[in-house]
């Protein structure tokens, strides 16, 4: 059994910053995540994308942000329990026992849920059945492997346009296909892709992929027209994803729109269990990485007092000597 003051469920940016801040408050910490690497959604879905809403960085690549957060937390030596899903929560004396999917048990005085959107599953491309790993992908883990490739990006959201923007300088060609004429993506990103001259094919869908052993071409059909064959070494199906909280939904929280309701301190309906980041919900919530960092600090400071009523809520400034 791992025994810590605080168990953090979720190793995304919010969870990693919470691990740092908990160490700053002199709390021993374990971080559990079902993914095999720290970074959560950033590592799994857009490690190469530039992030623009982290204070102090005009722009920072996803993987670089995660690496910096891991380095920041490392000074306090948190225990990482990666590739394991938090399954059950049981009260245990002055804290909780959390059982993980591999049989590991963690005893913690308090818990902070930073699970983001929970477990996510990419929405399928109907024509892509059987092509995953054979030229069709949902995410782009490394840009350079697509150098000099002909890429077709399918989707109309932020991810689709971000991939088109990132791949344009290195790919032989990039086309973007969307089934509607309007986009969900952030308008400045749409304009940036348009200004690069990336072909954007709207009211259209990819109807077939062909090639052996991997994709070499795909058919794109514009509404009301016959399919047209396009060269494609890679098809990026950026169609969004579905997500759920998995076993966390059985832990006694009040849930709203697949998120956990919290008060202004981050406290959930379960005593000594807090939540921060995208998984936390309260009136006026804005889901940004920057928001998650502030919520993590607020929750950890309140957890420190919950664990030791003689502790001060205000921790002092981290820039103070000593």
Architecture overview:
- The protein has 322 residues and is α/β, with parallel strands linked by helices.
- The protein is built from six helices and 22 strands.
- The protein has helices spanning 13-24, 40-45, 62-74, 158-167, 187-195, 289-307; strands at 2-9, 29-33, 50-51, 60-61, 79-82, 86-92, 95-100, 105-113, 119-122, 136-137, 150-154, 173-177, 200-201, 204-210, 217-222, 228-231, 234-237, 241-244, 255-256, 259-261, 273-275, 280-281.
- Strands 1, 2, 5, 6, 7, 8 and 21 form a seven-stranded mixed β-sheet that branches. Strands 10-17-11-12-13 form a five-stranded parallel β-sheet, with helices on one face. A three-stranded antiparallel β-sheet has the order 14-15-16, with no helix packed on it.
- A hairpin with a 2-residue loop joins strand 19 (255-256) and strand 20 (259-261).
- Helix 1 packs parallel to helix 3, helix 1 (13-24) packs parallel to helix 6 (289-307) and helix 4 runs parallel beside helix 5 (187-195).
- It is elongated, with a radius of gyration of 22 Å.
- 42% of the residues are buried.
Concise description?
By secondary structure, the chain is of the alpha/beta class. The chain has six helices and 22 strands.
